[in-house]
């Protein structure tokens, strides 16, 4: 039995919606959406009781436990994307302060281009499966963005109140290297919290890496 003209119109409309929602590149964003959703299912509202005071959980630990904080979940999805072939330089862990709650939260940022060739930054948030552009997440105040290649300063004032956050990131990468899951440099050069004027790339807030 055919679906008829009205059915075809409905399907056409749905297809149009998906084309709009999943730009850039349906397959790419749908894969990212799947990875985001999978890791978000591990998010726990209750902190787990393990001896990881000085670092986040590695992706393997979070998978085995099927539970983790927003930082653990973001850390895991970032490296899952890297293992899936996404450019590590275009992925970063961003710690931001939520204007509504003033709490810090960890998200993954994926820098890419849309179907019109425009540069965009997608936010993979542990608290939602919806993937939106960073420019549309005005409630997030960036504290810092980091990967193994660069360190982008957001708010030094907020960062200075949470100096352990960067140490936990570095210590987790070192643990992954010790476990044989990571090769190469562990952390980019970064400013001391007592350093008032970090060395920046011209025209950006990016602190240059030694790599």
Verbal overview:
The chain has helices at 4-21, 26-40, 59-65, 70-83, 156-159, 164-178, and strands at 91-98, 104-113, 119-124, 132-133, 140-146, 151-153, 206-207. The protein starts with a helix and ends with a strand. It has a seven-stranded antiparallel β-sheet. The chain is α+β, with helices and mostly antiparallel strands and 211 residues long. The longest helix has 18 residues, at 4-21. It contains six helices and seven strands.
- The count of DSSP E runs of length 2 or more, i.e. the number of strands, is 7
Distance between the termini: 62 Å
Instruction: Using the alpha-carbon principal axes, give the shape.
Output: globular
Q: How would you describe the oligomerization state of the chains in this entry?
A: single chain
Query: What class, by secondary structure content?
Result: alpha+beta
Helix content: 25-40%
Query: What gyration radius follows from the Cα positions, in whole Å?
Result: 19 Å
Helix count, per DSSP? 6
Q: What is this entry, summarized?
A:
This protein is an alpha+beta fold and 211 residues long.
Features:
single chain, 211 residues, alpha+beta, seven-stranded antiparallel beta sheet, 6 helices, 7 strands, 18% strand, globular
